[in-house]
Design brief:
The chain is an alpha/beta fold. 38% of the residues lie in helices and 11% in strands. Among the domains are: 54-204 and 212-228, no CATH class; 237-324 and 335-569, Rossmann fold; 901-936 and 946-1028, 3-Layer(aba) Sandwich (Rossmann fold). Strands 3-9-10-8-7-4-6-5 form an 8-stranded mixed beta sheet, with helices on both faces. A 7-stranded mixed beta sheet has the order 14-11-15-16-18-17-22, with helices on both faces. The chain is elongated and about 130 Å long. The chain binds thiamine diphosphate (TPP) and magnesium ion. Its cofactor is Mg(2+); thiamine diphosphate. Pfam families: 2-oxogl_dehyd_N (PF16078), E1_dh (PF00676), OxoGdeHyase_C (PF16870), Transket_pyr (PF02779).
Length: 1032
């Protein structure tokens, strides 16, 4: 019986065109008849003439073999016969062969297959490839333990698209316009089997790629070109050895520590050890692509390993610190130790050489236990580095953030940071996120800690690519870490790696995991570590000889032992808190001089004109034009400087002195209360203009930065804190919309700002403006919770600072007091004082955070104005030896500033207060004509407490009863902070000390304020009246 093929070809009356030329190259009828069965020649090699019977015999032979076993013939022939079965016409085959002969296609079947491929098949095939691109990661083998059983994905099954076993060896064409990777045009035609194999290898192997959510086709194509390579990418032997070496360090460092310190917590990396070779490869490649500085923020897990093996912190030091040795006081003359922190929170910085001979500066930020809190701090620091190094395209300074799986999914700050990642004044050109995913958070399983399939799903909202990788496949790990570096340097955007491993021990090493994850830990006990897995792989594939594998282990073991032995003699050095920019800055143990903050009048005027000048062709809003006119008028007359102008003068003069000023927060450009107008908008063209960017000729771009932020407190405050620790010559300010919103950023206040210097010896001059004041706006928006900030001030309420009159103005007592406190809390009542307190932040030899209760109604209060003279270098009052911030403002009746001023005996009462309530007290006092009877003192600085000045006032008013007046309820505000300090001051001046300081204010309340306007007004009137009523 003639074969189907021969019959069909013959039916055309002649052997069709090109197919008529078919003739076996090697296979002759004799050969076919011989005992040893010849290999069938691939169709594509068949070029000779085919006119005789032998050809058809050959064809028949082949077909017979194909019918009995399709695999016994070359796959091109199998495809050929299958095409025939599917009804491909003889003409089609003939034309295909013609094309092949003309060299237009690489195989006659290419053309045949294309012609044979129905439109439906093409579409289904594309759908299938797309399904792998979109969902392949759901079928990837990501869990080293293999216990995470994910349901099969039907869209990845060729049967879902109507393909059968029969189609596997058919060749298909996949080309699509504008598509890289497997679907790129011009790719070789492949059998379905080959296509499937590459798809599975690519998308369902040890790496799960998620990128199809990215709406930019260029970026997708860029990734596809790297992911969907025609052939699998292999590392060279040298590269494999490097990975092995780095993995050995990682694994053996942990096991060494485990052996030496059996009972210590170290939050080891075991189960995710391939993080280290991954990070090192990432940094090597990033350095080759221009990165000079890397700032890392990371949690507890694997921190010591990263310090030792990625940062290259000397192992001796790591071991010495692990043994808990504290820095030796007096080494290199420094006693600045702070209160310290546990070893897995400490930061450090090193210069690390890379494989290609470059050097990268690496900093690891200190961080608190609060997971993810360091994220935006890290970004802020990088952003500052980029500013100072003119890194305009942000490719020389790079942040890396490490995360735990539980924390990445659970902590909202992760989203806040991602949301900030592309904002013009917050972007850092991309953060690399590395999730060390050990599939458990303390004792909680993923199914109880997140609602999404992956812990990284939040990143997809921001269109970041996400690469999941099986931590046991070290080469795959290195591959995606390198891909992440390349992505960041190319697209300046965030990228996420989800390194999926396990946690070999409990949450820490002395914790029992079997209590809660018995099945997982049975699997872990049976599971080889990642180093063994990689060693086995290399030995099995024969790429590295056994001796070399052992040689690396022996070397690492020996070096670890040597370092351990040297650690005993290791002398801890002085606190490494000073980076180069901070040279010359003082620790709290070194006295720094107090400097004046007044500015020469001509500079003040120059700056004043500059900050009120708008371009000629600019059309401001009518009201803004008036504001600017009024400001200019203030400079011209030298009178009535208001809050907004005082601030602009502070910024402008600091800029003129070469400093950097950055103000960020919600709606800060205009100012929540429409008082700032730092950015003005052209009403015709819509363009924005910022006068403070043009204070002097040659001002650097961004030297003055004012930026509305995302609607986040936690994230943005963290960012500004990070920004502030990079370089001391910057006034960095975060302003809350209303002070009460600051509690959304409480972690930054508690864990970083108030305690960072004590824990990590890192100074920050960050300034925080918190609008505060009781205007009858209800429970929210009245209180910035002053009491909480005061409570966190670490000053001893009973300890008076050293008061040495001879050093009154050269630093003595004031220096020691302010330098040793953790932060300053102020509530200014005059524009000039605001000006000086801002300038004071930079005119010092140390840096301290400043928390300021910022005003609301004082912004436009007719009495809250200052003459320009109060900003100037030369004091109006000859008794004032220097113009600077007033920590206490005396009563208007007093002028003498001496230590022991003349007494004002007629005064029956002295009311101490802070903030805008002063103006209400003063107005009412004037109304009641009690100026000679009741003195009002303003405590502009609440912490550190101005003991010296309060004592002076106690001496001045020997007969006056002391009252504290405040708007806040008794359990809030400054009362409970001030009381012991006032008592101590009274005691020190020999006055009788009352058991309780008399109080005029709202009663204790659960809520910060009443919601009823009338009640507010009554309460306010009462507290003012009571304060002034000497019989009360
Ligand atoms: C904000 C915050 N809440 C709670 C904790 C207590 N805590 C410490 S580690 C941990 C589990 C973290 O899990 P994961 O993020 O997966 O990291 P892993 O320890 O598994 O590496 C928790 C809840 C914390 N440190 N920070
Ligand atoms: Mg975890």
């Amino acid at each position: 019986m003639l074969s189907t093929a021969v019959r069909r070809l013959g039916r055309r009356g002649r052997l069709p065109g090109a197919l008529a030329l078919l003739r076996p190259l090697h296979a002759s009828s004799q050969a076919l008849a011989s005992a040893a069965e010849p290999e069938p020649v691939p169709l594509s090699k068949l070029k000779d003439q085919f006119l005789n019977a032998t050809s058809s015999t050959y064809l028949e032979e082949l077909e017979e073999r194909y019918r009995s076993n399709p695999k016994s013939v070359d796959k091109s022939w199998a495809s050929f016969f299958h095409s025939m079965d599917m009804g491909v016409s003889a003409e089609t085959v003939a034309e295909a062969y013609d094309k092949f002969e003309r060299g237009e296609v690489s195989s006659p079947l290419t053309a045949a297959a294309i012609s044979n491929q129905t439109i439906q098949e093409s579409m289904r095939l594309l759908l299938m490839v797309r399904a792998f691109q979109v969902m392949g990661h759901y079928a990837s083998t990501l869990d080293p333990l293999g216990i995470d059983k994910r349901p099969a994905v039907k869209e990845l099954d060729p049967a879902y698209y109507g393909f059968t076993e029969q189609d596997l060896d058919r060749e298909f064409y996949l080309g699509t316009w504008n598509m890289e990777g497997f679907m790129a045009e011009g790719r070789q035609v492949r059998t379905l089997r080959e296509i499937l194999a590459r798809l599975r290898e690519t998308y369902c192997g040890s790496i799960g790629y998620e990128y199809m959510h990215i709406p930019d086709s260029e970026r997708c194509n860029w990734l596809r070109a790297r992911i969907e390579t025609a052939e699998k990418v292999e590392y060279s032997q040298e590269e494999k050895l490097r990975i092995l070496d780095r993995l050995s360090w990682s694994e053996m460092f942990e096991s060494f520590l485990a052996n030496k310190y059996t009972a210590a917590k170290r939050f080891g990396l075991e189960g995710c050890e391939s993080l280290i070779p991954g990070m090192k490869a990432l940094i090597d490649l990033a350095a080759d692509m221009g990165v000079e500085s890397v700032v890392i923020g990371m949690p507890h897990r694997g921190r010591l390993n990263v310090l030792a093996n990625v940062m290259r912190k000397p192992m001796e030091q790591v071991f010495s610190e692990f043994a808990g040795r504290k820095p030796v006081k007096g080494v290199e003359g420094d006693t600045y130790m702070g209160s310290g922190d546990v070893k897995y929170h400490l930061g450090t910085s090193y210069d690390r050489p890379t494989i290609s001979g470059k050097r990268v500066h690496m900093s690891l930020l200190a961080n608190p236990s609060h997971l993810e809190a360091v994220n935006t701090v890290c970004m802020g620091k990088v952003r500052a580095k980029q500013y100072y190094s003119d890194d305009h395209n942000r490719t020389r300074n790079m942040p890396i953030l490490l995360h735990g799986d539980g924390a990445f999914a659970g902590q909202g700050i992760v989203y806040e940071a991602l949301d900030m990642s592309q904002l013009p004044d917050y972007t850092v050109g991309g953060t690399i996120h590395l999730v060390v995913n050990n599939q458990v958070a303390f004792t909680t399983d993923p199914k109880k800690s997140r609602s999404s399939p992956y812990c990284t799903d939040v990143a997809k909202a921001l269109n970041c690519p996400v690469f999941h990788v099986n931590a046991d496949d070290a080469e795959a790990v290195v591959r995606v870490f390198e891909l992440a570096a390349e992505w960041r340097q190319t697209f300046h955007g965030d990228v996420v790696i989800d390194l999926i491993g396990y946690r070999r021990y409990g949450h820490n090493e002395i914790d029992e995991p079997m209590f809660t994850q018995p099945i997982m830990y049975q699997a872990i006990k049976r599971h080889k570590n990642a180093l063994q897995v990689y060693q086995d792989k290399l030995l099995k594939e024969g790429s590295v000889p056994k001796e070399q594998v052992r040689g690396i282990s022996d070397k690492v073991q020996k070096l670890l032992h040597d370092a351990f032995n040297h650690a005993k003699d290791y002398k801890p050095k002085k606190g490494d808190w000073l980076s180069s920019y901070w040279a010359g800055f003082m620790s709290p143990h070194q006295h720094s001089r107090i400097r004046n903050t007044g500015v020469p009048m001509d500079l003040l005027k120059e700056v004043g004109y500059a900050v009120t000048k708008l371009p000629e062709e600019f059309t401001p809003h009518r009201q803004i034009a008036k504001v600017y006119e009024a400001r200019r008028n203030m400079i011209e007359t030298g009178e009535g400087i208001d809050w907004g102008m005082a601030e602009a003068l502070a910024f402008g003069t600091l800029l003129a002195e070469g400093n950097h000023v950055r103000l960020s927060g919600q709606d800060v450009e205009r100012g929540t209360f429409s008082h700032r107008h730092a950015v003005v908008h052209d009403q015709k063209k819509g363009e924005a203009y910022t006068p403070l960017e043009h204070v002097f000729h040659g001002q650097r771009p961004k030297q003055f930065t004012v930026s509305n932020s995302s609607l986040s407190e936690y994230g943005v405050l963290g960012f500004e804190l990070g920004y502030s620790i990079e370089n001391p010559n910057a006034l960095v300010i975060w302003e809350a919309q209303f002070g009460d919103f600051a509690n959304g950023a409480q972690i930054i206040f508690d864990q970083f700002l108030s305690s960072g210097e004590a824990k990590w010896l890192r100074q920050s001059g960050l300034t925080v403006l918190l609008p505060h004041g009781y205007d009858g706006q209800g429970p929210e928006h009245s209180s910035a919770r002053l009491e909480r900030f005061l409570q966190m001030a670490d000053e001893d309420p009973y300890k008076l600072p050293t008061i040495d009159e001879s050093k009154w103005f050269i630093g003595g007592h004031l220096g020691s007091q302010i330098q040793s406190v953790n932060w300053q809390i102020v509530n200014c009542t005059t524009p000039a004082n605001y000006f000086h307190v801002l300038r004071r932040q930079l005119h010092r030899q140390f840096r301290k955070p400043l928390v300021m209760m910022a005003p609301k109604n004082l912004l436009r209060h007719p009495a809250a104005k200052s003459p320009l003279a109060d900003f100037a270098e030369q004091a109006r009052d000859k008794d004032i030896q220097g113009v600077r911030f007033k920590r206490l403002i005396m009563d208007e009746s007093s002028t003498d500033r001496s230590f022991d001023p003349p007494t004002q005996e007629d005064f029956k009462r002295v009311v101490l207060c802070s903030g805008k309530v002063y103006y209400e007290l003063a107005a009412e006092r004037a109304k009641q004509g009690k100026q000679g009877e009741v003195a009002i003192l303003r405590l502009e600085q609440l912490a550190p407490f101005p003991f010296d000045l309060v004592m002076r006032e106690m001496r001045r008013f020997p007969n006056a009863e002391v009252v504290w007046a405040q708007e806040e309820p008794m359990n809030m505000g400054a009362y409970l902070h001030v009381q012991p300090r006032l008592q101590r001051s009274m005691e020190a001046t020999g006055r009788e000390v009352p058991l309780r300081i008399k109080y005029s204010g709202r009663p204790s309340m659960a809520s910060t304020a009443t919601g009823f306007g009338e009640v507010h007004a009554q309460e306010q009137a009462d507290l003012i009246n009571n304060a002034l009523d000497v019989t009360f």
